[in-house]
Amino acid sequence: MISYITGTLEYQSGNSIVVECGGIGYSMMISGQFMNRLPAMHSHIKVFTYMSVREDEISLYGFYDRDELEVFKVLLSVNGVGPKAAMSILSALTVNELRLAVVSEDVKAITRANGIGTKGASRIILELKDKLRLEDMIDAAYEDSMNGSRVGSGGVAQSDIDTRANVVAALTALGYSGVEAGRAVNRVEGWQDMDEEQLLKASLKNII
């Protein structure tokens, strides 16, 4: 099993790339989200991988980081979702957007993926409710904050974690500004009696 490949990005066409490592060019399919984050051609790159083996085909799929790979594997656990469908979903949604769609039961968001209809999206939500956790999205938000990336000024120091701070961090990880996230959370009435998932759903209604 190939866990990841480190080498040089030699070629990109459509949703496929070729990474040269040790004189061998590895061709793999990647998501649209990963495509948007590719380095310049002939640059050094590390790609996490998943090998799909069928009777008539062996395919290699590449992922930006371990988180995207793990979410891909979780998608494969859904009845009727194969590697190509899972990759289509990860092209339409970031991993955190998918987590949010599952938590908030947003069927419409998941149907943005090519080949995924309302019935399929509903099945994904039903089967992944206990597998794609809000906590994972929050952890990613704090990691981004520590790395000085997307969360930016809207991030919350880990020592100040509480229910509202966690939800603000989750929203900023999805691309909302700290101001937007803070206002949305502050406008929720009765938040003291809500857990993080309930507060996230209520806060989203104040943004969308």
Automatic annotation (TrEMBL):
<feature type="region of interest" description="Domain I">
    <location>
        <begin position="1"/>
        <end position="64"/>
    </location>
</feature>
<dbReference type="Pfam" id="PF01330">
    <property type="entry name" value="RuvA_N"/>
</dbReference>
<dbReference type="Pfam" id="PF14520">
    <property type="entry name" value="HHH_5"/>
</dbReference>
<protein>
    <recommendedName>
        <fullName>Holliday junction branch migration complex subunit RuvA</fullName>
    </recommendedName>
</protein>
<dbReference type="GO" id="GO:0005524">
    <property type="term" value="F:ATP binding"/>
</dbReference>
<feature type="region of interest" description="Domain III">
    <location>
        <begin position="156"/>
        <end position="208"/>
    </location>
</feature>
<dbReference type="InterPro" id="IPR010994">
    <property type="entry name" value="RuvA_2-like"/>
</dbReference>
<dbReference type="InterPro" id="IPR013849">
    <property type="entry name" value="DNA_helicase_Holl-junc_RuvA_I"/>
</dbReference>
<dbReference type="GO" id="GO:0005737">
    <property type="term" value="C:cytoplasm"/>
</dbReference>
<dbReference type="GO" id="GO:0000400">
    <property type="term" value="F:four-way junction DNA binding"/>
</dbReference>
<dbReference type="GO" id="GO:0009379">
    <property type="term" value="C:Holliday junction helicase complex"/>
</dbReference>
<dbReference type="InterPro" id="IPR000085">
    <property type="entry name" value="RuvA"/>
</dbReference>
<comment type="function">
    <text>The RuvA-RuvB-RuvC complex processes Holliday junction (HJ) DNA during genetic recombination and DNA repair, while the RuvA-RuvB complex plays an important role in the rescue of blocked DNA replication forks via replication fork reversal (RFR). RuvA specifically binds to HJ cruciform DNA, conferring on it an open structure. The RuvB hexamer acts as an ATP-dependent pump, pulling dsDNA into and through the RuvAB complex. HJ branch migration allows RuvC to scan DNA until it finds its consensus sequence, where it cleaves and resolves the cruciform DNA.</text>
</comment>
<keyword id="KW-0227">DNA damage</keyword>
<dbReference type="GO" id="GO:0006281">
    <property type="term" value="P:DNA repair"/>
</dbReference>
<keyword id="KW-0238">DNA-binding</keyword>
<dbReference type="InterPro" id="IPR012340">
    <property type="entry name" value="NA-bd_OB-fold"/>
</dbReference>
<comment type="similarity">
    <text>Belongs to the RuvA family.</text>
</comment>
<keyword id="KW-0233">DNA recombination</keyword>
<dbReference type="Pfam" id="PF07499">
    <property type="entry name" value="RuvA_C"/>
</dbReference>
<keyword id="KW-0963">Cytoplasm</keyword>
<keyword id="KW-0234">DNA repair</keyword>
<dbReference type="InterPro" id="IPR011114">
    <property type="entry name" value="RuvA_C"/>
</dbReference>
<dbReference type="InterPro" id="IPR036267">
    <property type="entry name" value="RuvA_C_sf"/>
</dbReference>
<dbReference type="GO" id="GO:0048476">
    <property type="term" value="C:Holliday junction resolvase complex"/>
</dbReference>
<feature type="domain" description="Holliday junction DNA helicase RuvA C-terminal">
    <location>
        <begin position="165"/>
        <end position="207"/>
    </location>
</feature>
<dbReference type="GO" id="GO:0009378">
    <property type="term" value="F:four-way junction helicase activity"/>
</dbReference>
<feature type="domain" description="DNA helicase Holliday junction RuvA type">
    <location>
        <begin position="1"/>
        <end position="62"/>
    </location>
</feature>
<comment type="subunit">
    <text>Homotetramer. Forms an RuvA(8)-RuvB(12)-Holliday junction (HJ) complex. HJ DNA is sandwiched between 2 RuvA tetramers; dsDNA enters through RuvA and exits via RuvB. An RuvB hexamer assembles on each DNA strand where it exits the tetramer. Each RuvB hexamer is contacted by two RuvA subunits (via domain III) on 2 adjacent RuvB subunits; this complex drives branch migration. In the full resolvosome a probable DNA-RuvA(4)-RuvB(12)-RuvC(2) complex forms which resolves the HJ.</text>
</comment>
<dbReference type="GO" id="GO:0006310">
    <property type="term" value="P:DNA recombination"/>
</dbReference>
